[in-house]
Write a structure and sequence with these properties.
Rossmann fold; Elongation Factor Tu (Ef-tu), domain 3; eight-stranded antiparallel β-sheet; single chain; binds guanosine-5',3'-tetraphosphate
C-alpha cells in the first residue's frame, strides 16, 4: 500500500498574512444597494452559495446580524456585522454598517476599524444625505474610497452630472475607471477603463467570459458591432471626455484619500461587481497603522495590539452576554493567551474568540492585523478599549460625535433606580447613545442621533434590566467639547454651570441650546474652542 502523505502547507508569516488582507466598509444612504452589493461580493468569495436566496433577497435578513429582537421587529439593520471571505489570494473583511440614520454613530465607529471604503450611490438619486455624512467621516481620517454607482439598469442621472455632484457634495476628486454604455432600457454594459474591457450587460449575469471583450482601441469596429453605431459613438465621445477632464488613476493619491476611482454597475444584476472587486483587491490598502496617544502602531510589529470598536449586546436574552468586536492592529492575536486590558489594568484571556464568515461564526485560534475578532464579554469592555501584550496604549481616532437629539431621563420606577443606572451605564459603554450629566443639578441627559434609539434604550432597559424610564423633551442644539487651558475651562464652567455637563469620561461639554447661543458663547470666549467631536 502506498504511504499516505498529506501535504502540509507552510504557515504564512505575519507579513504575508498582512499582505493578504483588505478590510473595508460599504457606506451608502439606505436603499442605494449596500446589502445587495455585499451579497454579490460574498458570492464571488464563495462565502455564500445560496444564489436563489440572494435573488429573492432572503439572505439579506441573515447576511447581516439580527441579534437584537428589536431589529427583527422593525426590519431595520440595527446591528453591524462583519463578513470575511477569500478572493483570489486575498482575505477580504467587510464590515457592514447600519444604513439607518438613527444608527449613524455605530457606523462612524465601525469606520474607525476599516482601512478603506466603498461608497454606493443610486444612479437615479445621486448623492443623498446619509452618504454625505458618512463620506465626511471617512474624509476626516483620509480613508481611501472607491465609488460604485449602482442601478444602471434604471433610468438615472447623466454620468458627468453625477460626477460633478460627487465632487461638489462629497468633496471627492473622482477618477472614473469604468463608464456605462447607455442606461435604463438602453443599458448595454460598461467599458472598464482600468482594464480596457467592454462588458456587455445581461440581466442576472453569471459573469460569463463571453460577455467580456478586450477592446484596446475604442475606435475599433468591434465596439460598433457589439453595441451599435449610436451607443459606440457616444461611448467613444464620453471616454475621450473622461480622459480629458479627469486625472489618470494615481494609486498614491487614492491611498492618501485624495482621489476616488468610480465604477458603474448594477448590483442586483451582478453587473460590474466583479470588476469592482478585482480592482478593489488590486488597489485597496492592506491593514494600515493605527494611532495611539503614546505612539503609532505598525501592523507588522511582532507584539499583538487591538482595540474594541463595537459592542453587540444580548444575543441570547437569557444570558446578558455581549460580543465585543476587536480590530487586530499588530502582531498575532491568539486564543487562550493572556492579554493586557489597558483601561482596567488587568490580564484577560479568551477561550472562544470568534471570526465571522458570512452568516456563520466560528471559534478561531489566531487572527492577524486587519481581522476582526468577536470576544465574549460580561461587561469588561467599552468602546475604544485596547488590548496589548503589556504595553500601555490608548487608541485614538474613535471620537464621540455630538448627538442630534437630547432628552432628560426620568425614572418611572423608583424601586429600580439601581437597575436603571446600571442599565444606562452599560448601554452607554456599548455606544448605544451618549450620557451627559449636568453640572448644576446632576440630571442625566441622553443624546442620540435619532428618535429610534430612545425606543431601543427604553425597550432594552425594560427587557434586560427590568427598569422603566421615560424621556423628557429638552431643547438642545449640540453638545460641544471644550478645548482650552484648565483655568479658562474652570472659569467657563463656573459662569455657565447651567449649560455645562460632563460626558461619560468626565470631560466638560457645553450644551448649546441653539446655533445662535453657541455663536454668542464662541464670541464671548475666544480663549476657548468648542468642538462637535470629542477628539480634536
Ligand atoms: P441598502 O442595503 O443600501 O438599504 O439597499 P438594498 O441592497 O437593500 O437595496 C435596496 C433596493 O434596491 C432593493 O429593492 C434592491 O433589490 C434594489 N436594488 C439593488 N441594486 C439594484 C440594481 O442594481 N438595480 C435595481 N433596479 N435595483 C437594485 P427592494 O424592492 O427595496 O427590496 P427587495 O424586495 O428587492 O428585497
Amino acid at each position: 500500500m502506498q504511504p499516505f502523505f498529506t501535504e502540509v502547507s507552510r504557515p504564512l508569516g505575519l507579513q504575508e498574512e498582512i499582505a493578504k488582507r483588505k478590510t473595508f466598509g460599504i457606506v451608502s444612504h439606505p436603499d442605494a444597494g449596500k446589502t445587495t452589493l455585499t451579497e454579490k461580493l460574498l458570492l464571488f468569495g464563495g462565502a455564500i452559495q445560496i444564489a436563489g436566496a440572494v435573488k429573492s433577497n432572503k439572505i439579506k435578513k441573515h447576511a447581516t446580524s439580527d441579534f437584537m429582537e428589536i431589529e427583527k421587529q422593525r426590519g431595520i439593520s440595527v446591528a453591524t456585522s462583519v463578513m470575511a471571505f477569500e478572493y483570489r489570494d486575498y482575505k477580504v473583511n467587510i464590515l457592514d454598517t447600519p444604513g439607518h440614520k438613527d444608527f449613524a454613530e455605530d457606523t462612524y465607529r465601525t469606520l474607525t476599524a476599516v482601512d478603506s471604503a466603498i461608497v454606493v450611490i443610486d444612479v437615479a438619486k445621486g448623492v443623498e444625505e446619509q452618504t454625505e455624512k458618512l463620506v465626511e467621516v471617512c474624509r476626516m481620517r483620509n480613508t481611501p474610497m472607491i465609488v460604485f454607482i449602482n442601478k444602471l439598469d434604471r433610468e438615472g442621472k447623466d454620468g458627468f452630472d453625477l460626477l460633478d455632484e460627487i465632487e461638489e457634495k462629497l468633496k471627492l476628486k473622482v477618477c472614473p475607471l469604468s463608464w456605462p454604455v447607455g442606461m435604463g432600457q438602453d443599458f448595454q454594459g460598461v467599458f472598464n477603463i482600468y482594464s480596457d474591457e467592454l462588458k456587455l450587460f445581461r440581466a442576472h449575469s453569471k459573469q460569463d467570459e463571453e460577455d467580456t471583450f478586450l477592446l484596446k482601441d475604442l475606435a475599433s469596429e468591434e465596439l460598433t458591432q457589439q453595441v451599435g453605431d449610436r451607443a459606440a459613438a457616444s461611448l467613444r465621445e464620453d471616454v475621450e471626455m473622461v480622459q480629458e477632464v479627469y486625472p489618470a488613476f494615481d494609486r498614491e493619491a487614492y491611498l492618501a484619500g485624495q482621489q476616488s476611482p468610480v465604477f458603474f454597475g448594477s448590483a442586483i444584476n451582478n453587473f460590474g461587481v466583479k470588476e469592482l472587486l478585482d480592482c478593489f483587491v488590486d488597489i485597496a490598502p492592506n491593514p494600515l497603522p493605527r494611532t495611539t496617544e503614546q505612539r503609532e502602531i505598525e501592523p507588522g510589529e511582532k507584539k499583538f495590539t487591538g482595540f474594541v470598536f463595537k459592542i453587540h449586546a444580548n444575543m441570547d436574552p437569557k444570558h446578558r452576554d455581549r460580543l465585543a468586536f476587536l480590530r487586530v492592529c499588530s502582531g498575532i492575536f491568539e486564543r487562550n493567551t493572556n492579554y493586557y486590558h489597558v483601561r482596567q489594568d488587568k490580564k484577560m484571556k479568551f477561550s472562544n474568540p470568534t471570526a465571522f464568515m458570512a452568516s456563520r461564526k466560528e471559534v478561531i485560534e489566531a487572527a492577524y492585523p486587519g481581522d476582526i475578532v468577536g470576544l465574549y464579554d460580561s461587561g469588561n469592555f467599552k468602546i475604544g478599549d485596547g488590548l496589548t501584550e503589556g504595553e500601555t496604549l490608548h487608541f485614538q481616532g474613535i471620537p464621540s460625535f455630538s448627538p442630534e437629539l437630547f432628552r432628560y431621563v426620568v425614572n418611572r420606577d423608583p424601586m429600580k433606580s439601581k437597575q436603571l443606572n446600571k442599565g444606562i451605564d452599560q448601554l452607554m459603554d456599548e455606544g448605544v447613545a451618549q450620557l451627559f450629566t449636568k453640572e448644576d443639578n446632576a440630571r442625566k441627559i441622553i443624546g442620540t442621533v435619532g428618535q429610534l434609539q430612545f425606543e431601543v434604550i427604553k425597550y432594552r432597559l425594560k427587557g434586560e434590566y427590568g427598569a422603566s424610564c421615560d424621556f423628557e423633551a429638552l431643547q438642545m442644539y449640540k453638545a460641544c467639547w471644550i478645548e482650552g487651558d484648565d483655568k479658562d475651562i474652570s472659569e467657563f464652567v463656573r459662569l455657565r454651570k447651567r449649560n455645562v455637563a460632563r460626558d461619560k469620561e468626565g470631560r466638560f461639554v457645553y450644551m448649546a441650546e441653539s446655533a445662535w447661543m453657541l455663536k454668542t458663547v464662541q464670541d464671548n470666549h475666544p480663549e476657548l474652542k468648542f468642538h462637535f467631536t470629542s477628539e480634536f
